[in-house]
Amino acid sequence: MSNVIVVGAQWGDEGKGKVVDILTEDAAMVVRFQGGNNAGHTLVVGGLKYALHLVPSGILHPGKMGLIAGGVVIDPDVLIQEIETLRARGVEVSPRNLLIGEKAHIIMPYHQALDQAREGQKGDGRIGTTGRGIGPAYEDKASRIGLRMCDLADLNFFREKAAAAMAEKNCLLSSLYGLRPVSLEEIMARAGLWAEKLKPFIGDAWAVLRAALERGDNILFEGAQGVQLDLDHGIYPFVTSSNPIAGAAATGAGVAFRDIDGVLALVKAYSTRVGSGPMPTELTDGTGEFMRKQGAEFGTTTGRPRRCGWLDAVVVRNSVALCGADHLAVTKLDVLSGLKELKIAVHYLLDGEKIDFIPADYRAVERCRPVYETLPGWEGDISGARKLDELPKAARNYLDRMYELCGAPPALVSVGPDRDQTIILHEYF
Ligand code: IMP
Hints:
Blueprint: E1 3-8, H1 16-24, E2 29-32, E3 41-45, E4 48-52, E5 65-68, E6 73-74, H2 76-88, E7 98-101, E8 105-106, H3 109-122, H4 134-143, H5 155-176, H6 184-198, E9 202-203, H7 205-215, E10 219-222, H8 248-253, E11 262-268, E12 271-273, H9 286-294, E13 307-309, E14 311-312, H10 313-323, E15 327-331, E16 341-350, E17 353-355, H11 362-367, E18 369-376, H12 393-406, E19 410-414, E20 422-424
Parallel strand pairs: 1-10, 1-11, 2-5, 2-10, 5-7, 6-8, 7-9, 11-15, 14-16, 15-19
Antiparallel strand pairs: 3-4, 12-13, 16-17, 16-18, 19-20
The structure holds inosinic acid.
C-alpha cells in the first residue's frame, strides 16, 4: 500500500501520534489535512516526550516531509513555538522537511477571544472547546473573510483584510461580551513576526503532494481529533468545526479517492472524551478513575482530565463504516491490565428499544443506555509483549471480540507509550 489515511475512531486522543510515528518509518511524506492546534499528539521517542499540535508527527524522522495542507487552520504563534521547541531539542525543522500550505487559514487573536467569550457565556450549554479559536476560524473561512498563510506575503493586503474582518469581531467582543476589542496594530506587529519566521516554509502544498503522488511515494495522511467529533457526522453540536472522517483528506489536502489505498482507524481499548456532550459508556466511578490514572488521561492541549468509559462498539462500528477503515490500530491495551472484568457496549437501549446506531439528536443519545457484553480481564504487565501469543489469553479474547464487534481486524496493538511497545500484525507500506 502506498497512500494511507490514519483517523481516530472515537473522540480523539486515541494515540495517533505514536502510530503515525511508527508508520512514518516507511512513508516519504506525512500530511495533516484538517483541524488545527486543538489537536495534540504526545509521542515518546527514545525516552523523550514530545507534544505536537500542528507539526506533523513525522518530523521526528530525518528525511521525511511534513506537510500542513490547506484544510488545516493554523495559529502562527503556536506553530512558531513548536518549531523552536523542536529545534532546541536538536530536531531538524527546515523548509526541507516542513511545508505550510499557502491556502491554510490563520487563526487570528480575535478568533480565540470569540471562542473563549462564547464558551464563557454558555454556562451548562458549553461545548467544552479547547478555546483555541478553531470554530471562529473555520466560520470566517466559510464566510470568505478569513486570512490565509499566503496573505503573509503582502502585509499591506493583510492589514486591509484584517481590518475588514475585525470590524464585526470587535463589535461583538465589546458590545455583546463586554471585552476589550482587539487592536489592529497589535495584530500587525504579530503578523510581521509571523511573516519573518514562517515565510520560508509557506508554499504550494498541493503541488508538492501531487508530485509525490505521481512519483509513487508512500504518503501518510494524519487525521486529527476523532470521527465522533466530526462536524457533519458527530454528535452535533458537541463536535469540532472540521471533518475528522477519512473523506476529509480529499477536501483538506486535495487528494483523489482513487489515490487512497488504505484507511487505518485508531481505537483506544476503552473510551475517552474531553469536553461536553453525550458519552453513553462513561464511567464516573472508581473504574473510570482507574482508567484515567493508568492511562494518564489528561488533555495534551488543555490539560483537562478526560472522561473515561468502557469501549463503545456502536461508536467504533459507526466510525469504521464512515471511513471505510480496513484495519484497527488498538491503543493503550496495557491500561486495562488489572481490571477483573471488562465490558464492551454492543448496542444501546433507547427508551426501551434496541438500537445499534447513534441518534442524530444529542438528547436522544443522552437517553441511550449501553447494553454490555462482559469479558474476563487479565492481570500483570503486558507492555513487554511483541507478539499476539505473548499476551494473556483474556487480552487476545478481548482483541478478537473488538474485531468482531467493530468490523475491522487489528493491524497493530499498542501496549505502551514507546515506539517499540507495539505488536505489528499487518504492514501498511
Ligand atoms: P474545538 O475543536 O476546540 O472547537 O472543540 C470542540 C470539541 O472537540 C470539544 O469537545 C473539544 O474538547 C474537542 N476536541 C477538539 N480537539 C480535540 C482533540 O484533538 N482531541 C480530543 N478532543 C478534541
